[in-house]
Specification:
Blueprint (H helix, E strand, L loop, with lengths): L1 H14 L3 H18 L4 H6 L25 E5 L3 E3 L3 E8 L4 E9 L7 E11 L20 E6 L7 E9 L10 E9 L6 E4 L2 H7 L21 E3 L22 H4 L1 H9 L4 E4 L15 E7 L2 E2 L1 H13 L2 E7 L4 E2 L2 E2 L9 E3 L2 E2 L5 H10 L10 H4 L11 E4 L18 E6 L15 E10 L3 E11 L5 E4 L30 H15 L1
Parallel strand pairs: 2-8, 9-11, 9-12, 12-14, 13-15, 14-23
Antiparallel strand pairs: 1-3, 3-6, 4-5, 4-7, 7-8, 10-17, 15-18, 16-17, 19-20, 21-22, 22-23
Length: 509
Amino acid sequence: MKDIDADRRNLLKGAVATSLASLAGNLSLNSAHAAKADPDLIHRENLKEGSTDWQLTRVMLDSRNGFRSSKIEGYCSKQSVAAGEPIDIMVSTRPAEEFKIEIFRTGYYGGRGARLMTTLGPFQGKPQPVPKPGKKNLHECHWDPAVTLTIPDDWPSGVYLGRLSTLKDKTGHGYWQSYVVFIVKDDRPADILFQCSDNTWQAYNKWPSNYSVYTHPKGNQGPWADVSFDRPYAKYAQIYENPQSLGSGEWLCFEFPFAYWLEKHGYDVTYCSNSDMTSPDHGLKCKSFLSVGHDEYWDIRQYESAVKMRDAGVNLLFFSGNSVCWVTPLRESSDGRPKRIMFRGGPYGGDYKYAVDREKQNGPFPHRGPDEGYLMGARNVDPVNGGGDWVCEMPDHWIFKGTGMKKGDSIPGLIGWEYHGDPPKDIPGLEVVAKGTALQGGVNPQQWTATIYPGPKNNFVFNASTIFWCQDLSSPPGHMLPWSHWSRPHGPDERVQQITHNILRRATS
């Protein structure tokens, strides 16, 4: 395919670029960084007092096996918002009850995990309608906003949770809670741009009952279902029971431990939504780009942005699994707000066998993406899920410095529940730094690989090859360890922390 061959040629050409071009590229990046950067911002923010009470305490689902909590639930009008811009928060209570909204920024904050930014309300709640299924089973809410919040200028970039709490229930003694989630973004140069995987959060969101890109009557892998960001996030619905997640997407499950750890150590980090990466502009101002957790669904413009960033000298770090798997076109809502509806448009993978098989089995699809292996250094494989240990292959590689690891040493349970493998053999300088076997369902073996390869301007691309990487970085308040395929990560591990320090320090130096 033409776009795949072009991407491959650009990669091979870039890898043998002259040292003069490398120096010029790095000087350009560093000059932009020095002009507007505030590398101490996150450190200063985390010196502020954290909150002792920001988690969900009382959650009532509509049924024992349900996903939503109609007692109180809500959503925001945007995935991300900049300081000085407004965002609407829509809330429904059933029955009508007074409620308040507490806005927290998640971070380290001395180990507390979040800081209270403001409290809004009380408001008089009311039941708001569940939309009837539209074309392609679309559920798009048109709720009245409870409040329009203009983001203050001194709120730094981060992932923010709005805790919705009724002030009483019918007994007069209880209350019910859920979250809304939004990202505060900025355009400042930073060492690290942390991309939240919110396209994937929404793809698996089953609100109100069983409506996601996986639940269309025609099948769970085709292009048939549209999903809207204009609806609440139901409880996390995949591999383990996590009522704490209600309304927060997958942030607390698979990404927050990474952010908590970054902010604990004072890394210069800024945050964005998947939807913000349809342009490379912010990423080109940063030294490194992080894909974290379960980052499966990418608009093709995100892919193009990542290629431009890599070729300009930005380090791409995939601390994630099952990433760049499905082309996910984003389009405007029915009232014209951009990038609010998406669907599974087709597989990435180009002519790779897994993508070809997905097309045969679940297509036809209106889109096909290039081979993600030439971006990430490894690919989505079949089967793509399972559990296993992360096994050192190249102990003398600089990423293992200070870990004491030897070839064959393993970190238990770190592979899961999805991963990457089968790296392209013609990427110049690609190294397999870790590899091993995962077991799908505890029975079916599959090979995974963690890789690193040089970019064209003294930068690099790293692929950890697991959704679970952040589980071994930290265990913050509000987080629960997952398990899947009869396997589980163990929580904070000094070797994973050291490897991550090694990678980030080189990526941001």
